[in-house]
């Protein structure tokens, strides 16, 4: 009888021990697959405060990804001064350091927006720049006489749009035109101003407004934009930052290319949002799925639908990626320890069998191979069974990790007491709606490799108890 035949008979002859090992392998394999699937899960969250309007989608930068890119750039720069990937590090005279990011680092990439716009079912798209403060050259801004203006730069804010009709404030009905027209995609060097600015400066459509960089009001280049429309506010619009430069009445809508010019960033725009209009509202969900398949780096963005739902990749969902790695490590170490103990117990209770085989001339290595073969047979069955239940384990573990990550994030925000960033970004109030996991062929192969590796190590470690003993010693233990 050869090693393989003896192994099969041994497994069938000891059903309880075989079932115990089978159960351990099923649990380990399932947890391995669950942890790996969690690392590539899609977490669907909802933030009703950021929902897109109507049959549209909105893309904006993902804050977690931004932090990661900033950390990566600082790892490259270290303590030295310099620039990398749109991040500049400087040392000040007082010994403190300063980190500055440029528009290329912050912007929603226009090339990515154009790729999404080509998806079937998308009728039109809009790009909206960040509120860009510039100096008003030939007109006065609206100011609060009771406010200390010494800390304000004395500017107005420009908001560029490719198609103004698709601007969020326009779509939401917060503003409406009282004179002229809105900005269209082929317009250049045009603007739409508030009724308050028009009345204060006695402006009308056709007039030219002049702007330049507020950092150098005396010498920077002056750019002009023609007034093509005047709007009035229908609903309350809040300032995104402190100071009259950002007050709603001082918001001037322009074509999407204009704000970068007077701010000194010509050729380097900062698009904060991209809005996509769905051609057929009845196919909204179908178009959404197609949009999510667009070939862009989705880890850089949040895709927000008209319910405020956001699809997050695990790498952008706080510490979920690290927690998944931690679960993999825990399962690996604990699984190895448990299997070593199981095989030690297994071998200890088979001393008589080992002694008999050795008395029949079987070498210790052959006996060890038999034990390994028994473990492999049981493990194959265990892994096959685990593949059937692993989707449930994966979804459960991913949901748990996502909720734990969200709890940690909220606790961290409370401790730091932060929520508003320099560009007016407000940390979202996300509610987890669903967690989607997929188990791939690569994950299955990795699972097989990890389980096999742990089994070999466990049998090897436990087998040392045989290898280090002499045949006479083993035979004496029989008696």
Automatic annotation (TrEMBL):
Q: Where in the cell is it found?
A: Cell membrane
| Family matches, as InterPro entries | ABC3_permease_C (IPR003838), Macrolide_Exporter_MacB (IPR050250)
Record-annotated membrane-spanning stretches: 20-37, 325-347, 368-394, 448-467
Q: Which PANTHER family match?
A: ABC TRANSPORTER PERMEASE PROTEIN, MEMBRANE COMPONENT OF TRANSPORTER-RELATED
Top-level taxon? Bacteria
Could you list this entry's UniProt keywords, alphabetically sorted. Cell membrane, Membrane, Transmembrane, Transmembrane helix
Name-wise, this protein is ABC transporter permease
Q: Name one GO cellular component term.
A: plasma membrane
Q: What is its main location?
A: membrane
Which residues are in the ABC3 transporter permease C-terminal domain? 327-397
GO MF annotations, alphabetized: transmembrane transporter activity
Q: How does it sit in the membrane?
A: Multi-pass membrane protein
